[in-house]
Structure to design on (389 residues):
């Protein structure tokens, strides 16, 4: 039975973020048996008062423990020790995976949340523990290997764990293995698990070609992620393979993962040109939504005047008007495979594993892409329709 004041006030540690100290204090209470699987923790406010920190700090610390599978939260019910946590700990071989996200990612978006869930499932199969790290720090040197989720190239190149040159057998054994999930950067001592973005782009272009489109445009992200670079390359390769001449004015790189104001101006300019594309492949879901908005602003109808293929196949893709034809990435399986790959490398660094493991995306045809000039058969659902008919 826990006492009302289960946590003692913490002291700040120079060079260390306070919420990391809070996270470790809560986790130590769980690992030490103060809180058992299924047991509810005190309210966030109570923990903050006991530790002498802010509510925001405690909330962030608890969120990381939820993501790592130590805790779970019930809507409106509170925070509990995850029932499967002790079982994973008992079956664990003592391995800990350091999980690293880049500074701009959000664990609440569909892409990163699905990758995270896959990583968690894979770690559960491995009996390994997950430790969320901020930009790669590992103050305790407790991780046996690291999973970098969709990292920017600068994040890898600045990491002291990524060897600057091809490692020798000795230096490779000294360095904990790194598995990148959701990106495909070629670096020494780094293994990658990703979608085959070249094939993904080929499928999208092929689908539009099969529908009869010959003026196909592309809107993608910048060069900070390998995904954007590979999708652009795949788009050009697919066009070249079928002899499709791509107008350079129909190919655009956005400044980020969505269209900003200037990007929107560039897309609208593309769409009002006399030789505008009749179809666009968007290299991201938010980019596709930006194209929907731009088409509306210049008076074009989707798909009658402009067909759109995008990704990912998020939950809202089938509910927007018209529903988005999308490339569905196997995100959870990517995360799972990344965890299994990391465990293999930790157990035996001499194991022969391919540097890249690429999974295939699936085309999900919907009403946003049809033959040029053809009306969509899509009709908005009656709001009274619950989808069970």
């Amino acid at each position: 039975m826990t006492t009302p004041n289960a946590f003692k006030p913490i002291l700040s540690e120079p060079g260390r973020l306070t919420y990391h100290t809070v996270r470790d204090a809560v986790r130590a209470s769980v690992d030490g048996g103060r809180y058992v699987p299924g047991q509810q923790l005190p309210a966030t406010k109570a923990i903050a008062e006991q530790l002498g920190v802010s509510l925001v700090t405690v909330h962030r610390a608890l969120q990381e423990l939820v993501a790592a599978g130590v805790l779970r939260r019930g809507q409106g019910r509170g925070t509990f020790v995850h029932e499967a946590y002790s079982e994973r700990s008992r079956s664990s071989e003592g391995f800990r995976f350091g999980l690293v996200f880049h500074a701009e990612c959000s664990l609440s978006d569909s892409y990163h949340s699905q990758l995270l869930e896959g990583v968690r499932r894979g770690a559960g199969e491995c009996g390994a523990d997950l430790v969320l790290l901020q930009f790669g720090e590992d103050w305790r040197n407790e991780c046996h290997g690291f999973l970098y989720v969709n990292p920017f190239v600068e994040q890898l190149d600045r990491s002291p764990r990524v060897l600057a040159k091809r490692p020798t057998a000795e230096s490779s054994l000294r360095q904990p293995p790194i598995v990148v999930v959701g990106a495909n950067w070629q670096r020494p001592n780094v293994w990658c698990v990703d979608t085959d973005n070249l094939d993904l782009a080929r499928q999208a272009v092929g689908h539009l070609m099969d529908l009869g489109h010959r003026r196909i445009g592309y809107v993608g992200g910048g060069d900070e992620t390998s995904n954007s670079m590979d999708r652009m390359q795949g788009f050009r390769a697919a066009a070249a393979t079928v002899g499709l001449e791509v107008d350079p004015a129909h190919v655009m790189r956005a400044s980020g993962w969505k269209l900003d104001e200037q990007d929107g101006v560039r897309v609208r300019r593309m769409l009002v040109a006399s030789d505008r594309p009749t179809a666009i492949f968007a290299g991201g879901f938010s980019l596709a939504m930006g194209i929907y908005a731009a088409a509306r602003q210049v008076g074009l109808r989707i798909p009658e005047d402009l067909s759109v293929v995008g990704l990912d196949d998020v939950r809202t893709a089938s509910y927007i008007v018209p529903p988005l034809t999308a490339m569905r990435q196997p995100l959870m399986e990517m995360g799972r495979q990344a965890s299994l790959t990391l465990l293999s490398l930790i157990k035996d660094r001499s194991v022969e594993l391919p540097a890249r493991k690429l999974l295939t995306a699936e085309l999900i045809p919907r009403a946003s892409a049809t033959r040029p000039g053809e009306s969509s058969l899509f009709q908005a659902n009656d709001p009274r329709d619950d989808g069970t008919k």
